[in-house]
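Please go through the protein record below and see whether the fold suits the sequence. Record follows.
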Amino acid sequence: MSRIPETVRASVIAAIYSHLDEMKWESPGIDRNSAYSALLDDPDIGERLTPYMTLWQARVWIKDGPAKEYSRALEGRSPYAKYTSRTLPGPHAVVSASCGDGWALKEGTVVDKPMRCVATNGTRSRTVMWGDESKFSDLYQAASRERIAGNDVLLVITRPGNAPVAQIAWNGACDLAALIGAGITSIVYSPVMRTSGRPTP
């Protein structure tokens, strides 16, 4: 596999993210195997990558690079963020929706992998961690470390619409949260179009 020139790389990522935005890549139920094939069928993607790698290598490059980073890009926490025209509401919205009145984000505390921040009501602080159902394992491991350190933790399972988390999965998540003494809730957390649109790479 040859090194992709930066101008080609930027153009290809922009084309990939245009498709991912249209497909709403973060949504559950997407046939991702078919989606990768469709991406490579786009001449602005497949034909621009194949001078530097095989089609299989291109598929892996898309899967492990731009596609894998898409959720972080929506949070504005990835170098790929400039390629998407969509954005998630962000940590202020998560804290407001999950903690309620009187709680606010403590500035400078937002980190990722998994997404988390510190919220405060002026007298108490808690670590708020959020992600969709597929990220619960990562959230739980991080929450366990926070609880061992003696910190109050609220796990927030995000969902793209009003449909609730599947009852069996929700019950299991609640039981696990109770084991470590963490709070848990679920909120609607959906991307919106950025008012500035997609910047030119």
Q: What stands out?
A: DSSP finds eight helices and seven strands in the chain. The mean pLDDT is 95. Residues 6-68 form one domain. Strands lie at 86-87, 104-105, 115-120, 125-132, 153-159, 183-188, 192-193.
